[in-house]
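Look over this entry.
=====
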Amino acid sequence: TGATLAICQWGFDDEANHLLLQHDLPAVRWVGGPEIELIAIATGGRIVPRFSELTAEKLGKAGIVRELSFGTTKDHMLVIEECPNARADTNFIRVGHQMNS
């Protein structure tokens, strides 16, 4: 479909993990409901319940996606920038674990 990153509100099942690894697609899981909705709005993407329903037309777009580490506790934030429908310049999503690839 042309995706370069998958973002999920819940975890990925074994089949999804296999597909992500097979296609060398990085993924972020356990993103909260309100946050994933804001990401969808900002990027112009559609939220789909399963990979089989994903099409190129439902993908969102962002110029830059990167992970920041900061503070004495080394908190991690996922930064999604250059979104076509963003009301702010940057969307921050707190990441509890390293990004999976």
Notes: Helices lie at 14-22, 33-43. The CA atoms of residues 65 and 80 lie 5 Å apart.
